[in-house]
Amino acid sequence: MTQISFDRPDPIDFLDIDSLLSEEEKLVRATVRDYVEKEIVPHIGDWWEEGILPQEQLAKEFGDIGLLGMHLEGYGCAGTSAMAYGLACLELEAGDSGIRSFVSVQGSLAMFPIWKFGSEEQKQIWLPRMATGEVIGCFGLTEADSGSDPSSMRTNAKRDGTDWIINGTKMWITNGSIADVAVIWAQTDGGIRGFLIPTDTPGFSAIDIKKKASLRASVTSELILDNVRVPDDFVLPGVSSMKGPLSCLNEARFGITFGAIGAARACYESALDYSIERHQFGKPIASFQLTQRKLVDMMVAVQRGTLIAVHLGRRKDDGTLTSEQVSFGKFDNVRNALEVARTARSILGANGITLEYPVIRHMANLETVYTYEGTNEIHTLVMGQAITGLNAFT
Predict the structure, then answer these.
(1) What is the pLDDT of residue 145?
(2) For the chain, what is the domain count?
(3) Which phi-psi region, left, alpha or beta, contains residue 281 (left: φ > 0; alpha: ψ -120 to 50)?
(4) Strand 220-231 relative to strand 163-174: parallel, antiparallel, unpaired?
(5) Average of pLDDT values for 143-153?
(6) Which of 208, 234, 260 is at the close of a domain?
(7) Kind and range of the H or E run holding 18
(8) Alpha carbon separation from 160 to 185, 230, 338 (Å, rounded)
C-alpha cells in the first residue's frame, strides 16, 4: 500500500522541482537570487517610479558575476549551460523584467549574433569587453511599421566602394541610447545583413522613448541611421537572411520562458505572505475559501510554468529544442504569469496598486513582455502552423 506523506509541502516549490536541478545549477540560481535580493529589490521600486536604470553600475556588477553572455563559450564568457542561463533569467526577472531585459539583450541579442555569425576579429574586439560590462550592446530589428513582420523592414544598406551606407530607423530598442555598439539588421541587395555599428559613428543617433507605463526601469529608444557609413569588416559575415535575427530572438525568447515565471513567483510570494498577515473579520484572509482558490491557482501556474521552462532547458542543452517549442514556452508562461500578477493584485486589494509591493510593477511590466520578442498572437500562429502544416500568417 502506498504511503502518503502528510508533511506540509513547500508552498514555493510544491512539486519539489529543485530535485530536478543539479548542484551547479542550484549554485548559479542561489548566486543570482542573493544578488537580486540584496542589490535590486531594495531599489527597484524607486528606479521604476523614476524611470531610471543605473546602467553603468549594473553592467559592471553583472559582468563581475558572469551574467553577460553567460551561456556563450570563450571570449571571456562563462560558458554555462542553457539551464543555468534560464535559471539566472528567472531570478533576475523576479527582481524586475527590465533587469532581466538588460542582461537578455546584452547576451542573447547583442553578443550572441557576434558569437554566432561574426568574424574571429569581430569576436575578439567586442565579446570580451561586452562580457565584463565595459561595452553595452543593443539589437536593432523592430521598426515602427514592421514589428511582427520584420522581413518588411525599410532600413537598408547600400554598397559604396568598400563601405556600406545605412539609412533607416529602428523602434522599441532596449538599451538603445546607452549602447556602445548596435547590431543593426538591414536590407541589402544580397539579403538581410547584420552590421556592427559603434554608436559614436556619424549619422547614428538614439532618442529615448518617454512616458512609458511599463518596463520603466529599462532604457527603450528609437534609433536613427542617417547615411551611416561603415567599412565592410563591420558586417557580420556568417549570415545573409532572416535566419540571423530570428535565431537571436529565439535565444531571447528562451530566457523569457524562464524570466516570466520569476515575475509570477514574486507576485505569488507577495500575495501569499500578505494573505497570511492581513486580517479581516478577525482572521487572516488566507483562511477564506475564495482567497485559497486564488492562491492555489497562482501556485499551480508558477509550478507548471517552471516545469515547462526546466523541460525546455534540458532540451536546449541536449540540442533537441525546436523554435516552435520555444514559442510554446514564451506563449504559455507569459500569459499565465500575467494572470498570476492580476490575481495577486486582487488579493492585495488597494495595497496592490502601490509600489510598496512588487505586484503592480510586475503586472505592468508583463504587459510589455506579452508583446515583445513575438506577440502572443504570433506565437499562436507559429504553433498553429506546426500542428496543422498550414501557414496562417498571410
Answers:
(1) 87
(2) 3
(3) left
(4) antiparallel
(5) 87
(6) 234
(7) none
(8) 18, 10, 48
Q: Is residue 176 part of a domain?
A: yes
132 vs 129: CA distance, rounded Å: 5
For residue 2, tell me if it sits in a domain: no
pLDDT digits (tens, 9 = 90+) for 13-29: 999 999 999 999 999 99
Name the pLDDT band for 73 (thresholds 50, 70, 90). very high
Positive/negative CA dihedral, 115, 118, 121, 126: negative
CATH code, domain with 36? 1.10.540.10
Category of 231 on φ-ψ map: left (φ > 0), alpha (ψ -120 to 50) or beta: beta
Residue 310 CA, chain-centre distance (Å), reads 16
| Residues 221 and 286 placed together within one structural domain of the fold | no
Pairing of strands 181-188, 137-140: parallel
Q: Is 373 a catalytic residue?
A: yes
Host H or E run for residue 143 = none
- With CA atoms as reference, report the closest residue to 188 among 124, 232, 132, 144: 232
Q: One of 120, 251, 373, 377 is an active-site residue; which one?
A: 373
Is pLDDT of 296 > 50?
Answer: yes
Q: How far apart are CA 388 and CA 288, in angstroms?
A: 45
Residue 285 belongs to what H/E stretch?
none
Q: In sequence order, which residues have a C-beta less than 8 Å from that of residue 244 and are 6 or more positions away? A: 113, 117, 185, 192, 193, 194, 236, 238
Please tell me the distance from the alpha carbon of residue 45 to that of residue 22, in angstroms, as a whole number. 33
What pLDDT score was predicted for residue 150?
86
Do 314 and 282 touch, CB atoms closer than 8 A? Answer: no
Helix ranges restricted to H, 106-173: 112-117, 120-132
Chain centre distance of CA 134: 21
Residue after which a domain boundary falls, among 132, 163, 194: 132
What range defines the domain where residue 317 resides? Answer: 243-388
The torsion angles phi and psi of 68, rounded to 5 degrees, stand at: -85, 115
pTM of the model: 0.94
Among 85-99, 144-158, 346-360, the least confident range: 144-158
Residue 149 gets the label, from left (phi > 0), alpha (psi -120 to 50) or beta, of beta
